[in-house]
Write a structure and sequence with these properties.
Elements: H1 3-19, E1 30-33, E2 40-41, E3 46-55, E4 61-62, E5 69-74, E6 78-80, E7 84-86, E8 99-106, E9 110-123, E10 128-141
Parallel strand pairs: 2-10
Antiparallel strand pairs: 1-3, 3-8, 4-9, 5-7, 5-9, 6-8, 9-10
């Protein structure tokens, strides 16, 4: 192997380490937002939980090939029609950074919540790192 090839290979292998293969540095390149989610509902009314991965740096995106999966866990006072969401369930499945709008129905009064356990890969042109994140949206049901 030439000196150039060995150097290129070493640099390529170092990319995940530079990106934070444990996700610690990668997590600072994006944020998960829930803007647009219902924060208050009346019993029997429908609302939504919005989950969006927003890049904080140019070139950051959610990997299209990675088997993205969101598991939805509502509290006892909320009902969801679907507990598992994949890329094809996004508002625009072809979007570089897909947005999800998860319908919820209020079924009992009180402080309720929906947790979304997210599994996806966040990438740049040089690296791609799987991420596990959970976001929780509080909904006051009256």
């Amino acid at each position: 192997m030439s000196r150039f090839a060995a150097g290129a290979l070493a640099a390529l292998l170092a990319l995940p380490a530079l990106a934070g293969s444990d996700g610690s540095n990668v997590a600072s390149t994006y944020k998960v937002v829930t803007d647009g989610s219902s924060r208050s509902l009346e019993v029997g009314k429908k609302g939504k939980v919005v989950v969006d991965v927003v890049p904080l740096e140019k070139g950051i995106h959610v990997n299209r090939e990675f088997p993205l999966k969101y598991k939805v866990v509502p509290s006892a006072g909320l009902k969801v029609d679907k507990l598992e969401w994949k890329r094809e369930d996004a508002v625009d499945p072809k979007a570089e950074n897909p947005t999800f709008q998860i319908p919820v129905t209020a079924i009992a009064k009180g402080a309720q919540s929906v947790a979304v356990q997210m599994r996806f890969a966040i990438c740049s042109d040089a690296w791609c790192v799987p991420q596990n994140k959970t976001v929780t949206v509080a909904i006051d049901v009256k």
